[in-house]
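Moderator note: this is an archived Q&A kept for reference. The question asked for a predicted structure of one protein chain; the sequence and the answer are reproduced below.
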Amino acid sequence: MPVRCPFVPKPLRPPPLRLYSSTTSPSPKQQIIFSGIQPTGIPHLGNYLGALKNWVSLQSTLPSTSQILYSIVDLHAITVPYDPITLRSDREEMWCVLYAVGIDMHRCTVFEQSSVSPPHSPGKTRPLSLMCVGAGCDKNCELID
């Protein structure tokens, strides 16, 4: 039986991102870092060397004015057939892994992709687009206007 991590918080909503036009830009000292990791099973050495080790080092090397956003991109994990129970446990395990490798939850904003819905699109758009391509949707009588 897998060990349940005591640190599986409710997903946090990331702070609103500021978009900069070509005439305005962030101050040279402020940086915004964003990266994500899929919860697709047991994390391995490639995850650690490719991303997690760098994520931990960024916390101490970037100035405190920098904004660091890390995401568990669980919607990307449903592009292949999956078991919802397994995905839920993989997502919880990824929270534990991030905590275990040294991600400072006070320094960084960590959130699950599924907890954030863009204001410009309904919540069902993303899962539907993963299951059905445009040409296939045109043939489906339930989806035709």
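Archived answer notes: Strands lie at 32-37, 67-72, 109-112.
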